[in-house]
Amino acid sequence: MNLKTFKHGIHPLYCKELTARKEIERAPIPKTVTVPLQQHLGTPCQPLVKKGDVVEEGQKIGDVVTFVTAPVHSPISGKVKDIERYPYPVGGKVLSVVIESNEEVKEWPENNTGLDMDLITPQSIRDAVREAGIVGMGGAAFPTHVKLSPPKDKKIDTVIMNGCECEPFLTSDHSLMLEFPEKVLWGMKVIMKAVNAQKGDRGIEENKLDAINIIQEVVRDISPEIEVVPLETKYPQGAEKMLIKATLNRDVPMGKLPLDVGVVVNNVGTAAAIYDALKFKKPLIERIVTVSGNGLTEPKNLILRIGTSFKEAIENCGGMIEGGERVVINGGPMMGVAQTDLDVPVIKATSGITVLTGDEIKPKIYHPCIKCAGCVEACPVNLMPYRLGDLARLSRVDEFKRWGGLSCVECGCCSFVCPARRPLVQWIRVGKVKLREEDKPGSA
Amino acid sequence: MDKSREGKVKGRRQTGECMKEKEKVPVSANKTDESIVERFVVSSSPHLLKDINIPKIMHTVVIALAPAMVVSIYFFGISALILILTCIISSIATEAFFQRLRKRPITVYDGSAIITGILLALTLPPSFPVLGAVLGSVFAIAIGKQFFGGLGYNIFNPALLGRAFLQATYPVLITTWSKSLAGSGIDVVAAATPLALMKFDGEMTPYLDMFFGNISGSLGETSVLAIIVGGLYLRYKGYINWRLPLGYLGAIFFFGAIFWLFNPSKYPAPLFHLLAGGAMLGAWFMVTDMVTSPVTPLGQWIFVIGAGILVVIIRLFGGLPEGVMYSILLMNSIVPLLDKWTRPRIFGEVR
């Protein structure tokens, strides 16, 4: 099979077999949830409830009047116990609403007209998506209604659904496509309607052959205008710009957005959330999370309420194996954030929780660069990571900028292949921060 | 799994602690169970790394050099073995001495000093004095590598620099060749290399002898077959880029062919260029040295093609019969510039 892909990139050990063919399980309703009021890129929400209020499942508990934001809803029915700053899985603390469950479960009745393609309009879709608090569920958590509102002068011709899931261990998108292919496709049709696109492409890596087959079948039934594009299994295929290159062979210019080349990319999870929002008027209060890694007794694909603690998610998978050092990651091992505290909540963009132990944990010592060119060959954006890393460490920010440091997507390919174990991505991140500090007016 | 863990721990201990990362201290320790104490390791992503490290690469190169060493011992006997061992031991000793002097971790077990020793030995004639070999190794490691800052910081290929030093100090001995005498019972018979025969006497050596190594020359330069076997093994392991050896040999071939087509009676055939002298050893083990070759694809092309052209020019018009050493050393010197000039186009960049 001649599979499409992008240049460079790496082939990590995917370890997806831990959860790949496991059915999605619904986790029990948690006793308490901690719901951060900012789970997206953009303006944080203001709380709409106060301590002691009784809230219903799906009730809006946080919102703010700006464009780039997404409201937050209560994932369970119960009582507001606390509104305070709590640890957040992407780092730092965020104002969060703590809700104690009263164990009531709400039914979500079907809304028959929700998916009537003749009745809905791009604006009504955008409103519904915003009201449901939907954000990009692949990891970046960019508010989806913003993505669905392209400027008038930008014509969108293609909508791409991202089903690559190139992060090792994670299988949440894969199992979603296997079990709910219609949700994904209807969600996609809605997105196409919202941005007025004629063509739809879906990129799926060829290690998910079963998903490709199922989606292809459903496509034949529902919407033949959608094309399924099998892609070579490679990391970071799921990065937006890499995916556009792989499926359409279009280069998104530096500093530009996909919509500048007429493309809107959405994660399959986002599409399924849009389907739920229109069909059931159900806001984004739960998601599929792959809880996996060699540090877990029984890895699973779970449907978890937003705000469930990592600790509870891990207990739902039989807990961690005993003793020793471990790394608990929000997301997958390539781009995820390591946690210090298991009380952090699952948020809208938590596609997985990965627990690594033993020899999977990376060594702590690094060595001099031997200029093996491995990082240069691996970098999907054609940078020279070994040099950027050194420039960043030496605070030579002007050169760092000239060598394209700001184009780094932090995918981790360079650190992954480095035989000297140099933490290149980490240095480049620091370099970006240094550069921004220097660029601030008045600080030079 | 257990085995790889062992390897990692061992590798870490062997290579010593160069620099410690301050970000990676365990941040919290909390109890979930009475008996289990968890330690969370926190670091910046990625959290999963490829199973590869510097000692692994270096030791693979040593293995890849084994066929050439074995063949040289077969053809040149015990003197070849002594030279190889001398170079390895003095290289390791020099590395350890200078690392101690520089108050740096002793990393002689990472295999890079062994490679330098072997490569230097393979470029020496079998009758070369042992003391000279020691001097060459000391120069290669001390001046060629440690003075620049150790592994990864050297500009020139240390082994070739050692060889260049010996060329200057022992100009006669280093060009005194002995014919390989496997099985004949005679010790050493002075003979000229195919390149010298071609250059000074206009005499050609049969290709098949050159391919298997039944000719006079430096230890590791005689058997093309043994070097190709090692080189292909390295390629199979993925530790060398095909661009470098093929570009180098291709450039020698095509540039040599130009002269040959121009005047076949005066200039040797392109195949002769490939089989003679150190072209093969250079192509598979010298230009492919990671530290001293460019990292960008375009830079690598310029590097090897430039070096290939230099080989032919030195062989045909220089004062020396062989040009591989200087061709690579000369091109080594512009590698930092090549890396700077040939930055790849960043994805989505408009130039």
Descriptive overview:
The complex is a heterodimer of chains A (444) and B (351). Chain A has 444 residues and is of the alpha/beta class. Among the domains of chain A are: 16-20 and 111-279, Rossmann fold, CATH 3.40.50.11540; 374-439, no CATH class. Chain A is built from 13 helices and 18 strands. Chain A has helices at residues 122-131, 144-147, 172-179, 181-195, 209-222, 240-248, 268-279, 310-315, 374-378, 385-393, 397-402, 413-417, 424-439; strands spanning 24-26, 32-36, 46-47, 54-55, 60-63, 72-73, 78-87, 93-101, 158-163, 199-205, 226-231, 263-267, 286-292, 300-305, 325-330, 337-338, 352-357, 365-366. In chain A, β15 and β16 (337-338) form a beta hairpin. Chain A starts with 23 loop residues before the first strand and ends in a 5-residue tail after the last helix. In chain A, 58% of the residues are buried. With 351 residues, chain B is mainly alpha-helical. In chain B, α4 (112-122) crosses α5. Chain B starts with a helix and ends in a 10-residue tail after the last helix. Residues 1-36 and 182-187 of chain B have low confidence and may be disordered. The chains are: A alpha/beta (444), B mainly alpha (351). At the A-B interface, β15, β16, β18, α12 and α13 of A face α1, β1, β2 and α2 of B. β18 (365-366) of chain A pairs antiparallel with β1 of chain B.
Properties at a glance:
heterodimer; A: alpha/beta; Rossmann fold; 4-stranded antiparallel sheet; 20% strand; globular; B: 351 residues; mainly alpha; 56% helix
Could you outline the blueprint of secondary structure elements for this entry?
The complex is a heterodimer of chains A (444) and B (351).
Chain A lengths: L23 E3 L5 E5 L9 E2 L6 E2 L4 E4 L8 E2 L4 E10 L5 E9 L20 H10 L12 H4 L10 E6 L8 H8 L1 H15 L3 E7 L3 H14 L3 E6 L8 H9 L14 E5 H12 L6 E7 L7 E6 L4 H6 L9 E6 L6 E2 L13 E6 L7 E2 L7 H5 L6 H9 L3 H6 L10 H5 L6 H16 L5
Parallel strand pairs in A: 1-14, 9-10, 9-12, 10-11, 13-17
Antiparallel strand pairs in A: 2-8, 3-5, 4-7, 5-6, 7-8, 13-14, 15-16, 15-17
Chain B lengths: L1 H14 L3 E2 L18 E2 L13 H23 L1 H24 L10 H11 L7 H13 L15 H12 L24 H8 L5 H6 L11 H14 L5 H20 L7 H6 L3 H8 L10 H21 L6 H9 L2 H7 L10
Helix pairs in contact in B: 2-3, 2-4, 2-9, 3-4, 3-5, 4-5, 4-6, 5-6, 6-14, 9-12, 10-12, 10-13, 13-14, 13-15
